[in-house]
Design brief:
Elements (H helix, E strand, L loop, with lengths): L1 E4 L14 H14 L4 E4 L12 H15 L6 E4 L3 H9 L4 E4 L8 H6 L4 E5 L17 H18 L7 E4 L8 H9 L12 E2 L5 H7 L7 H13 L4 E2 L4 H15 L9
Parallel strand pairs: 1-2, 2-3, 3-4, 4-5, 5-6, 7-8
Bound molecules: 6-hydroxymethylpterin-diphosphate.
Length: 264
């Protein structure tokens, strides 16, 4: 899943793709590099980001959604606002990626009637406060139980579980130690019986481990994606598609005893 942030303030690429033409060009590059899904967002979720009204968020998303409408890759929209979800689905989005796990009033209803894919993500607190003092008795169990509860809530609202993926929400109300523990134990989310998505790309955990700034974390991000897939992630949300794809191709060749080369 390749990330397209149509925002002035995203943590790693804020402002670069705020013009619709720049966002579409970036999307084109990510697809050429091998992205299977595009995830487009009109509001940054980074800690302390300025809130954006549904109207402004949609005005960022709409021209890009219109331009991507006939593309062969599914388009996911990263939003927690029910009115943005509904409008995005009308404009051809195939998936809603909600860092709020469809907990906003009206969110379950906004996606229920369509057949879109849904990502339910865990976070602790809201984006203003979430990194102040994240606290868990057992982060792995709490994240797993929360996601299990949200899958059940979605099913109770009439959403088929085949439409759902879950995400532990790296960096969302978690210390570096919490994030590391979640990555080590990512496999434990498999009991939920739905695919797992992992988003580690360029995140501060990787900066803390390597000592590198936000735009120098490509190698660490590729390592993070690889380790997540080895631990069962079915989707990885990344900024650097080409490098991630190469690493995942090597992993799948090594993991497949029946691997055949092109000229076999
Ligand atoms: N991370 C970010 C945004 N959306 N969605 C899911 N499902 N999982 C994630 O880990 C996730 C997400 C943060 O990354 P980015 O979009 O690059 O930054 P910003 O929120 O500042 O736009």
């Amino acid at each position: 899943m390749g990330v397209v942030n149509i925002t002035p303030d995203s943590f790693s690429d804020g402002g670069r793709y705020i013009r619709p033409e720049a966002a579409v060009e970036h999307a084109r590059r990510l697809v050429a590099e091998g992205a299977d899904i595009l995830d487009i967002g009109g509001e940054s979720t980074r800690p302390g980001a300025a809130p954006v009204s549904a109207e402004d968020e949609l005005s960022r998303l709409a021209p890009v959604l219109d331009a991507l409408r006939d593309w062969p890759v599914p388009v996911s929209v990263d939003t927690w606002k029910p009115e943005v979800m509904a409008a995005a689905l009308e404009r051809g989005a195939s998936m809603i990626n909600d860092v709020n796990a469809l907990a906003a009033p009206g969110a379950l209803e906004a996606v229920r009637a369509s057949d879109c894919g849904i990502c339910l993500m865990h976070k602790q607190g809201d984006s203003r406060t979430m990194q102040t003092a994240p606290a868990y008795a057992d982060v792995v169990t709490e994240v797993r139980d929360f996601l299990g509860g949200r899958v059940r809530a979605a099913e109770a609202a009439g959403i088929l579980r085949t439409r759902i993926v879950v995400d532990p929400g790296f960096g969302f109300g978690k210390t570096p130690a919490h994030n590391l523990q979640l990555l080590r134990n990512l496999q434990s989310l498999q009991v939920l019986g739905v695919p797992v998505l992992a988003g580690l790309s360029r995140k501060s955990l990787l900066g803390r481990i390597t000592g590198r700034g936000v735009n120098e974390r490509q190698s660490a991000s590729v390592a993070g994606a690889l380790l997540a897939v080895e631990r069962g992630a079915a989707l990885v949300r990344v900024h650097d598609v080409a490098a991630t794809r190469d690493a995942l191709l090597v992993l799948s060749a090594v993991s497949d005893p029946g691997y055949r080369f092109d000229d076999d």
